[in-house]
Design a protein that fits this description.
single chain, 488 residues, alpha/beta, FAD/NAD(P)-binding domain, 22% helix, disordered N terminus
Length: 488
């Protein structure tokens, strides 16, 4: 691993910038796909991962099955490297859990000698900067900001738990760190509700293992689930199963929206049977009164009430609970990038060239135009890219194969193959993908079974807006996955 302290930094780094490695942040599926692409191009690279194992974030929802079959979960470059070792791909039509995805794909990929030697676990990135330039500075003598290499500050933990700082100079940085570690708060205004931090020990952000590892936490308790997407459905259904063996378990479901709208999706009309069944089962629980629903519930404050927590909405309603599960989505961690001049959308915090196509306030369909190097580059910071789920900012949708195509395009540019970098081949199939539910027989937003799960149901389909217009003919079939609709 190349580390440089201020005292021994290269004096002539302008001349040798192109001999520096590319640094990849995150050893999840998109980060390791970037490594595989660079490996095939014989490019130097280093992968740093804050966790102790590859796929660290996915392991936190290892118990959750995904909507996507295996054939949509494996990167082509990674598969080419794995095939050289005799690796046998799983049945393309079967559906893995998060744990199976890690065990059968990410672990073998990270263990490949070519990749493993460049992988640094237990290594957290704290800052990415332009070496010798703060955000304000553009020149130093004859030097230009854009000519300086990127410098990444890391905190590495050794086997004894001792943390040491270091710096790595890089000709390019690919940030594939994801968003799972930065969930949205319960507060409806985008910041933690009053008392939310004080009651953090009563809140689980994401999908807990209700029937296994976390059973004791929820059994015979009054639990509030907050959120209106598929991850919330999943938690609700698991809690209902829990009541069969722990009958004093009570379920409160709070959503911010004032009515259900298309929240439950296409139900029996959904061409994805598993997703339709999930929505139908969740709806049935509301209809039969198994779960108590609180619509238009915008959380303003949490307060202690004896041994329970009082959850208060902005309209004065109150609910007493023992535990809270927050399924409120995620956002990118931009703190480590504060000294970079990034062209990000001021609303969803995605690269500006991509933001308009994925903003749920403007679009109700999940068809995102083909994009790669050209859309993800930052003119003021050449060589820096945000990819994968993090590239979508706060938007609820993410196309797994789009993440793979992003890094294929970007790594081609890093290697100097601009023809391949600009030849972005991944587009959605003809029917498009709607992220807003299929109700009302709106055929234009129907989902082809070959495409896959749509995103969290966030708005009406709006088919009359033209959002589901037929895209260009695809050169590669794709599959839509979101951090919320990923789960069933």
């Amino acid at each position: 691993m190349m580390r440089f302290n201020i005292s021994d930094r290269y004096n002539s780094f302008y001349k040798m910038k192109n001999t520096l490695p590319t640094l990849i942040i995150g050893a999840g599926p998109v980060g390791l796909a970037a490594a595989a692409q660079l490996e095939l191009r014989n490019e130097a690279y280093v992968v740093v991962e804050a966790g102790s194992q590859v796929g660290a974030s996915i392991r936190k929802w290892a118990h959750v099955p995904v909507f996507s079959p295996w054939r949509y979960m494996v990167d082509e470059a990674a598969q080419a490297l794995l095939a050289q070792t005799g690796w046998v791909a799983p049945d393309g039509e079967s559906y893995p859990t998060g744990g199976e995805f890690v065990q059968r794909y990410l672990e073998p990929l990270g263990a490949l000698p070519a990749i493993h030697k460049n992988l640094r676990l237990n290594t957290r990135v704290t800052h990415v900067v332009r070496d010798g330039y703060d955000k304000l500075k553009s020149r130093t003598g004859k030097g230009k900001r854009e000519d300086a290499p990127l410098m990444v500050t890391i905190e590495a933990q050794n086997a004894d738990g001792i943390i040491s700082e270091g710096q790595i100079l890089a000709k390019a940085v690919i940030d594939a760190s994801g968003t799972y570690e930065t969930p949205n708060p319960l507060g409806a205004s985008g910041v933690p509700a009053l008392g939310e931090r004080a009651h953090a020990n009563r809140i689980f952000y994401g999908i807990p293992s209700v029937l296994a590892n976390d059973r004791v936490r929820y059994a015979n308790k009054r639990v509030m689930v907050v959120g209106s997407g598929h991850s919330a459905f999943n938690v609700i259904l698991e809690l209902v199963k829990l009541t069969q063996s722990a009958p004093d378990t009570h379920i409160e479901w709070a959503i911010r929206r004032s009515d259900f709208g298309q929240m439950f999706g296409g139900l029996s009309d959904d061409q994805l049977a598993a997703r339709g069944e999930l929505g139908a089962n969740a709806k049935r629980l509301i209809d039969n009164g198994t779960v108590k629903m609180h619509t238009g519930f915008k959380i303003a404050q949490l307060a202690q009430a004896g041994e329970q927590v009082r959850v208060m909405s902005d309209d004065g309603r109150e609910v007493l609970v023992d535990e809270i599960v927050a399924c409120t989505g995620f956002r990118p961690n931009l703190e480590m990038l504060r000294e970079l001049r990034l062209d990000l959308d001021d609303r969803n915090e995605a690269p500006r060239a991509l933001a308009g196509a994925i903003d749920p306030n403007l679009h109700s369909c999940g068809s995102v135009p083909p994009h790669g190097y050209n859309e993800l580059k930052h003119e003021a910071e050449p060589g820096f890219y945000v990819v994968g789920m993090k590239s979508y900012g706060r938007a609820p949708t993410f196309l797994m194969l789009t993440g793979y195509e992003q890094v294929r395009s970007i790594t081609a540019a890093i290697a100097g193959d601009m023809k391949a970098a600009l030849d972005v081949r991944l587009v959605l199939p003809e029917t498009g993908v709607c992220n807003a539910g299929l109700g009302g027989g709106g055929a234009c937003c129907a989902v082809d079974p070959a495409i896959g799960a749509t995103a969290e149901q966030t708005s009406d389909c709006g088919c009359n807006t033209g959002c589901c217009a037929e895209p260009a003919a695809p050169s590669k079939t794709s599959k839509l996955i979101s951090i919320d609709s990923l789960f069933r």
